[in-house]
Amino acid sequence: MEHIRSILGRRLRLGVIGGAPGSFIGEVHRIAARLDDTYELVCGVLSSNPQKALQAGKELGFPSDRLYKTVQQMLESEETRKDKIDALAIMTPNDTHFEYSMAALDKGFHVICDKPLTNTLEQARALVQKVRETDLVFCLTHNYTGYPLVRQAREMIVQKMLGDIRLVQVEYVQGGRAREVQVSPDMPRAWKYNPEKSGPSLVMGDIGTHAHHLLRFVTGLEVSQVSAEVGTIVPNRQVHDFAGALLRMSNGARGVFWATQAAAGVENSLSFRISGSSGSLEWCQEIPQRLQFFPLDGPAQVFTPNGPGILPAAAKVSRIAKGHPEGYLEGFANLYTEAAQAIGNAILKLPHRDYDFPGVVDGLKGLEFIEAALLSSRSGGSWVSTHQVP
Ligand SMILES: NC(=O)c1ccc[n+]([C@@H]2O[C@H](COP(=O)([O-])OP(=O)(O)OC[C@H]3O[C@@H](n4cnc5c(N)ncnc54)[C@H](O)[C@@H]3O)[C@@H](O)[C@H]2O)c1
Questions:
Q1: pTM here?
Q2: Domain spans of the chain?
Q3: CA 287 to ligand 1 centroid distance, Å
């Protein structure tokens, strides 16, 4: 595919909201955006504190006429510039995703937003509507689907190498919240412990939505029904830190979902096991260059990203020769680069194509899954359809 820089004759101009020094994900977005030299970072409001926003803008080297103190000031000023931003990337606490996404779309900017899409279903639905009305690009950074071997797994399922999908398992296990902590307003990411900001279920918004999206992406199936328990395991904690669920998938396959941030010592163990009528696949984010394939009739096989002729789906999103590990940052960058292609095409009014990056509808599905799981959990684990959520 021709690089968007040569099609457009320039890099895309990107603004950012959130991601001040010390934030978790801000630097990752900024690296990911620039890894393929597709975007130029031209402005941003990195903090809700106007002085810190100014300072951070200076440190990132934004030009003096593009140093903004507030998001509103940035949007209003950018809208009137000849060299205005093309896209806005949002990496702020969850409760602001809706407001900033709507504001950016209203000003005609394409959006790249971190997950979860919003904190409520109502907001998610309104955002889907807004994206449809404006016809702008919306990329939701469920970054784990950018790994080469996740793309390979999906391709193998499309090619029916597993036969008909019968059983699915996805888990996202972390230990970052295994300790009992006294929450104070000045600690990093204190907002996560406030449901008004982090949403109705911290563990589901933080990592459950990633696991849910990964499962949908790889299998091409939807979660139709869920029987769940969502709750809190660490003493004296108000927000959810674990969620377990049985799943019924759209093709009748059965599944298990497990997400927790309270597993002491575990690092970032996002993994899936998919079984069909003629074989199974297993992958874990911590060893991303290994995809294990277990055919029903034959020896187990290990796939690695292995060059264009051999695994084209993986090669399409790999940058270096086989044997050189690519991981989190590169996977994140793949979504940015794919979004750039879509944004470039939109600017040039070229026809829409199918893109691999997650979008606003994927975000809505994530919110539907959260709501269904919470409804089920409140009713003692009864089966709830994801289409049943009000
Ligand atoms: N995709 C991933 O793998 C991943 C990983 C971590 C976090 N996230 C998501 O990224 C978002 C941020 O999470 P985090 O862990 O980096 O949080 P954080 O608290 O570390 O950082 C948030 C940043 O946003 C800034 N900010 C807050 N309100 C703002 C406002 N109104 N205007 C401008 N800046 C504002 C803060 O100053 C801070 O720099 C969350 O939605 C989270 O779910 C995604």
A1: 0.98
A2: 4-144+336-358, 147-322+365-384
A3: 26
Instruction: In whole angstroms, give the CA distance from residue 387 to residue 155.
Output: 27
The atom of ligand 1 lying closest to the CA of 206 is 43
CATH class for the region spanning 147-322+365-384: alpha beta
Residue nearest (by alpha carbon) to ligand 1 atom 31:
48
Which alpha helices (H) appear in 175-325, and where do they start and end?
A: 195-198, 202-203, 209-219, 312-315
pLDDT digits (tens, 9 = 90+) for 97-138: 999 999 999 999 999 999 999 999 999 999 999 999 999 999
pLDDT digits (tens, 9 = 90+) for 319-365: 998 899 999 999 999 999 999 999 999 999 988 778 999 999 999 99
Which residue among 28, 45, 47, 194 is best mutated to probe the pocket of ligand 1, counting the most ligand atoms within 8 A of its Cβ? 47
Count of other CB atoms within 10 angstroms of residue 339: 29
Q: Which atom of ligand 1 is nearest to the CA of 94?
A: 41
- The strand order across the sheet containing 12-17 reads 39-45, 12-17, 87-90, 110-113, 138-140
* Extended beta strands in the chain, E state: 12-17, 39-45, 87-90, 110-113, 138-140, 165-174, 223-231, 242-249, 254-260, 268-276, 279-284, 291-295, 301-303, 384-385
Is residue 269 within 8 A of residue 284, CB to CB? The reply is: yes
Q: Which fold has domain 4-144+336-358?
A: Rossmann fold (3.40.50)
